[in-house]
Specification:
It is a single chain. The protein is of the alpha+beta class. It is built from 5 helices and 10 strands. The protein has a 4-stranded antiparallel beta sheet with strand order 1-6-7-5, covered by helices on one side. A 4-stranded antiparallel beta sheet has the order 2-3-4-8, covered by helices on one side. The protein has a two-stranded antiparallel sheet with strand order 9-10. β2 and β3 form a beta hairpin. α1 packs across α5 (about 195-215), α2 packs across α5 (about 195-215) and α4 (about 170-180) crosses α5. The chain binds a DNA duplex through α4.
Length: about 270
DNA sequence: AGTGGCACCTGTGTGC
DNA sequence: TGCACACAGGTGCCAC
């Protein structure tokens, strides 16, 4: 489900509910997500939430008893419900707050993650976050950085953009979109991009992700923000999911190929 | 070190 | 209708 914009939209949705609130109760389901959820999460009963942030596609909820790290995987989403609302299939984790509100994680495929960083430890040094590349919105992320980082890479640029060590937050949808806007073939060898092309790609990553966040993310199947609102960026997608349709720029049929077991969409005429 | 392949898991749509 | 298979927005591990 979520790429960076969807995670950002989700975080903004739950922030007003969580920020400053006291945790009254925690529910930790039995089934493991990407890895089992630590029982220590139950010790958050009585903790106060101090703030929310995002690193890559991870949502960080800091409290006076440690930081909760959450990842939504492919199908995870957070909803805000009234405490006591019966759990449905694939509801795995609840943060119940004083005042009768609960933030609830539902994740069908269980590729998501919930873990806890003990108080006093830097959550950014957690093993899930420590090796991540720069945030696309960080000033250090630009064409020059990208050019340097792609040096010697023989993989296709599409796959390089999805590598979280290169840059975080660019998933399967936006990788295709960014390359379309940049006029670069997804099959082009990563190290072959010129500096000018790297600059264009870096700019378009920032542009597309920002625009998507402003539209409330991209709803392909069932994504919605914590408020249940759908994301409208799907209407702005140029190539993703449009195989066989005419390119909006030149009319050539959009092609679909598979790279690294993931679908890629591109215009064979506009992208070289 | 870099890379391709696969595993994790459930649901849905397609074609026979 | 039933079944088999492909595919889905992510990530990490493994063998080469």
């Amino acid at each position: 489900m979520p790429e960076l914009p969807e995670v950002e939209v989700t975080m903004r949705g739950i922030a007003p509910v969580l920020d400053g609130a006291v945790i009254e109760d925690v529910y930790v389901g039995d089934k493991p997500l990407r890895e089992p959820m630590p029982r220590e999460l139950l010790g958050l009963k009585g903790a106060r939430v101090q703030g929310l942030s995002r690193r890559a596609k991870y949502i960080l909820v800091s409290t006076d008893r440690g930081t909760i790290i959450m990842h939504l995987g492919m199908t995870g989403h957070l909803k805000v419900v009234k405490t006591g609302t019966p759990r449905v299939l694939h509801d795995h984790f609840d943060i119940c707050l004083e005042g009768g509100t609960t933030v609830r994680l539902n994740d069908i495929r269980r590729f998501g993650l919930v873990t806890l960083v003990p108080p006093g430890e830097d959550p950014l040094k957690d093993r899930h976050l420590i090796d991540l590349g720069p945030e696309p919105f960080d000033p250090s992320f630009d064409g020059k950085y990208l050019k340097e980082r792609l040096k010697g890479k023989k993989i296709a640029i599409k796959q390089a953009l999805m590598d979280s060590k290169v840059v975080v937050g660019v998933g399967n949808i936006y990788a295709s979109e960014v390359l379309f806007l940049s006029g670069i073939s997804p099959k082009k060898q990563a190290s072959r991009l010129t500096l000018a092309q790297c600059e264009k790609v870096a700019e378009n990553i920032v542009k597309v992700l920002r625009a998507s966040i402003e539209s409330g993310g991209t709803t392909i199947r069932d994504f919605s923000g914590a408020d249940g609102k759908l994301g409208y960026f799907v209407q702005s997608l140029n190539v993703y999911g449009h195989a066989g349709e005419p390119c909006k720029v030149c009319g050539t049929k959009i092609k679909s190929i598979v790279q690294g077991q993931r679908s890629t969409f591109y215009c064979p005429h506009c992208q070289k």
